[in-house]
Records
---
Amino acid sequence: MKLRATLIGFTAILMWSFLALFTAASGKMPPFQLSAVCFAIGSLPGLAVLALNPSRLALLKQPVKVWITGISGLFGYHFLYFTALRNAPAVEAGLIAYLWPLLIVVGSALLPGERLRWYHVTGALAGLCGTFLIVGRNGIDFNGAYAVGYGAAFLCAFTWSGYSLLTRRFDAVSTDVVTGFCLATSILSLVCHLGLETTVWPATAFEWLAVAGLGLLPVGAAFYAWDHGVKNGDIQILGAASYAAPLLSTLILTLFGFAEPSWRIALACLLVTGGAVLAARDMFRRKIQPAVAAQ
């Protein structure tokens, strides 16, 4: 059960790895508008489930703290991420924001029934180093003039890690509630778009297809899968494995001609993969021990 939930959570990481490709192909729609449209699309699978089985609507009746946690996680993360990108260089902001997997691994020690081991932290740090090679391939230059953007990126990392850890505490809450989180995030993003941006719609059918792909996968199904994974799977493994997202994203961009292959990618592969395997040591041990006992 725990292994299955962990693997479902990992599908979210796989879907997030397509975020850069779909975003690059989606045209020039401004970020909050794109967020509003994509989260609206992302809510459609959940709405379809609720329409086919209206009795599940009762599952949306949850304590206020559940709704605050979910909406703050999804909308808060994207609001802070976009704010960081508006006020700091994308490379530095992205690297700071991607501290969240490490924060999940370290913060998991505060969760009931979880124990933080040296190999969890070491695996997460290896993934962070791999991410540094990918994100900082053109150099890193932190500048005090971008303090607002850096601060937003730090808050971004704490927001998503906090959401993921708190979600674990709401393990009895059905994943159906993510539908409501997506709808609320879409509405709040629309409000930000109307107040801060100029509306730009996709120019071609291909761009619309990319927007639909974003809404159905990285900004849709991925959040349902992540919710199930962090509630029922191994959150420490998922935290460390999350560093695979920027690596896989770069590999996908390279495959489609948006980036060039390099030694950095090869080394990052070793660091991220090795770190994830190290962090998953307990899971592999649990798989091996029953097999040995059966012999």
---
Amino acid sequence: MAEPYPPVEPYAHGLLEVGDGNRIYWETSGNPRGKAALWVHGGPGSGGRRGARGMFDPEVFRIVLFDQRGCGESLPHAADPSVGLEHNTTDHLIADMERLREHLGIDRWLLYGGSWGSTLILAYAERYPERVSEIVISGVTMTRPDEIDWLYRGVGRLLPGAWETFRDAVPEAERGGGLVAAYDRLVNSPDEAVRVKAARAWCAWEDAVIAHEALGSPGYYSDKTDDALMAFVRICAHYFSHDAWLEDGQLLRDAHRLAGIPAVLIHGRLDLGSPLKTAWELSKAWPDAELKVIDDSGHTGSPTLRGAVLEAIARFGAGHTGSRT
């Protein structure tokens, strides 16, 4: 089974001013003259896992990681209830990625990510297709209203006990409506106890959805520090209660803008939270994208899925002639 590359440390990092009082953390590792590749983390609000560096050959790639607004090492941090999220939207994140590309002097880059990262990659690539060389996605999402409704209501048909617990953590009067909007209100309560209780209930539900993924990372969502967990839930609820500020079906409708960008879409057949249908629909609308379905993987991956990602990234790096200085 393919294994990640040995750990590498950044040769440069910093905080980039992106406006509205926000500074996003970025770092570069690997080969300074290598093929540029950007890891786009999920969540939204998870922060960039530094282990993602290991998915790239450090001799071949100039590896760029960044933390999206409000999370990870970016400032200010959304764990602080006084930090507003009005300047934290999909359009802001797209602009941040483009500003980072310009800051680093990169002409075009490979984009790799999954889950929410998939949505952000697609939104950026449809806005700036000329800046994207290739795309690798593991866990395809487009954050459409029906996808959000499935994750926070529909999949409860398969997990009725855990879903009722998730539902019942909001006031009774709000249980028949939009649960995500109710949670968005709760995690912004002036009462710390209310915020913490809601954030933990949200992550307990997310963990219930992936609990069957024995080859992946069951318990992934609750296994965060208190600050990381609060920022994650605040940002998730903020984005999903606004349908990520995307028109319904926008990313699929505009998939023609991705023409000419080679891609590999890798999706676990056992992904309950983000069913295969989304990846299937995108592959049909994007002839340059190859779809690989991983039978033993759910949303948080498996050794087989990891191997497929490593193979896809290595394939796109083959033949690059950059050399170290």
---
Amino acid sequence: MAGLGDPPGGTPEGAPGGGEDEYRSVVFDESFVRAARLQEFSAQERITDHAPAVRRRKPLRRAGLSRQALVLVVLIAVAFGTAIYMGVRHPYQSPSAQRAAEPVRMTVVPLAPRGRVPGADDAGLLYERSPAAGFRTAAEGVPLPGARRTAHFSEDQVLNALTTAKNYIVRSALDPEVLGGGGVRSVRVLLAPDQLPQFDESFARPAPDGRHAPTGWLVRFDPARAELADPEIRVDGSMRAVESDASTLEVTADHTMVYALRPAGDERAGTSLFTVRRELHFRYDREDLRLHQTELVASYVQAGPLSCAEDSANHLRPLLAGQTAGTGTPAGTDPFTSDNATALCGTLAAGAQPKA
């Protein structure tokens, strides 16, 4: 006779005996039951609500982060750290600290005419008779040379330096507002912050001391003396960029500008030409390149016709058509050649003036 715990026919052949079955290793403990997605309604619930036999339970929330979420957080942190590292350490970055900008060295040499300043009613006629006949006009006369990468600077960085230098030249020597003695902010914003105190002091307290001459920073005429008779300023010159060390680019610009001027407020007066030759030296570190600003290292200016007896540090006070500089001037200097003046005042060579 079969036992109370055995099936009526006894234990099936091949099945384990002793009242044990194949599911005896499964333990339905409390945590297993609570985690079940389906739960059977009680008999009373099924009678009362005519509900289905089972109901779906909300899944239990697991405490803490899953392994996948933890891996994702780690990957995001690694990517963020890598981005910061690459941003701080540029592939061209030099480990050396950035230098403070040096004070600008500036020299302004007035060039006095030997005789009367030539004049004419037509500015175009004067240009045709002068060495500036073949010059281009305004910013077209300041073309950018080809930019080539250096050992530590990319082609884009070299182009950036050349473009900023050109912007400085155009704003400081070809802007009618600046030339007329007006605002200088358009020039100021291109300078490195370390040079702004020197720039501001130059205009607040101008002095011919080689450090604080406004005409060393830019070209401007005494508005009570002269004004532009023709906005088409003639320009010619060159620019070049070189790498001075692993963290510094240098740009040298050498340009000659020729202006047609007349007495201030007198549109019927005769026109004369005024020539300015500027050699500017710029320096750039990577912060300057990033901010599109420049450090002006040195400015060498020859300008005439001027009188050596007048101060040319604050404003240029041109000698106009028919005027003379007087006597006692030194040997001549031609701003259309590459020769440098050898005195604080030179004589404007006859060949630099328009022909009669």
